[in-house]
Amino acid sequence: MKGTSIDSFDPHYLGANWTAYCVEGHKDKPTRWLVYIDLLGFTQLVGGNITNAVITYLMSRKIVELWVEKSRGIHLACFSDSYVLYADDDTAKSFRSLEHAARCIINDHVQKKLPLVAAISCGQFYADSANNVFIGKGYLEANRFTEDQDWVGLVLCRSATKRLIALRLSPSRLLNYRRWKIPFKSRRKSKRTSDMKPLYAYVFGASPSVNGKNIYLEFLREMLTHIRERKVRRKYLNAIQFLEHFGVMLPAKSDS
User: Which residue in 21, 26, 141, 207 is a FRET match for 107, CA 20 to 30 A apart?
Assistant: First the structure.
């Protein structure tokens, strides 16, 4: 509007959340853990049978809300077929709570033949659910990494790995994660060295194995049999290749 500037804006318009956001220690670096989760194939589903799309979304939403309720200090924001789970801060305790919720959500979705892709980041993130305002570098990074992945999976963004190392929680010692050259859509076009470096990715079925088999690998293989479109099949094949490489998890080797 004419005569309006950012300097004249009254931050109290945003209420108590803004006040809490600006308290000492958070004003300059309001960092927190968050995970961006996207329900794969939803656009095509909506373009087909809208009833099936609604049922699928409600099944997915129920799973997500269940694990958010079970996780202390974790909050949820929903954007159509995408979810953002976020913690109050960037502590080790908050990471464990958020990461556990993310893994359980993905596990339950795969069991119900609902593919997801997700990324965990740690960065600046202003969250005001009352006013539906969600802004920050942490959100942008998690969103970019999620949208760019060309598989069914969960990765740790570089900011998440950096923060874990600072907390003396080496990602290499997380039972459920292994380094892998993530199949990014942009990687096929990029020549930058940074785009080629491996990231830590979640190994579905890392802990629960049945008769020496990764049950989530079997779920993905079964889901693949119903896919005909080449671009979509590639997502499943990429995830299957990752799980076939690691199989049933063994203790992680230390970085060297």
Answer: 141
Burial of residue 245 (CB within 10 Å: 0-12, 13-18, 19+) is exposed
Instruction: Please give the DSSP secondary-structure letter assigned to residue 149.
Output: B
Q: What is the pLDDT of residues 163-179, one digit of tens each?
A: 999 999 988 887 789 99
Residue 160 is part of which domain span?
28-246
Residue 34 lies in a domain: yes
The reply to whether 157 falls in a domain is yes
By CB atoms closer than 10 A (0-12, 13-18, 19+), residue 225 is exposed
Q: Please, what's the largest Cα pairwise distance for the chain?
A: 70
Please give the tally of structural domains in the chain.
Answer: 1
pTM listed for this prediction: 0.84
| pLDDT given for residue 23 in this prediction | 39
141 falls within a domain: yes
Indicate whether 12 belongs to any domain: no
Mean pLDDT of the chain: 83
Instruction: List, for residues 48-67, the tens digit of each pLDDT value.
Output: 778 888 888 899 999 999 99
Report yes or no: 180 and 198 within 8 Å, Cβ to Cβ.
yes
d(CA 88, CA 73): 6
Interhelix angle 230-246/215-224, rounded to 10 degrees, is: 160
DSSP assignment, residue 252? P
Give the CATH number, domain containing residue 230.
Answer: 3.30.70.1230
Contact between 34 and 121 under an 8 Å Cβ cutoff? The reply is yes
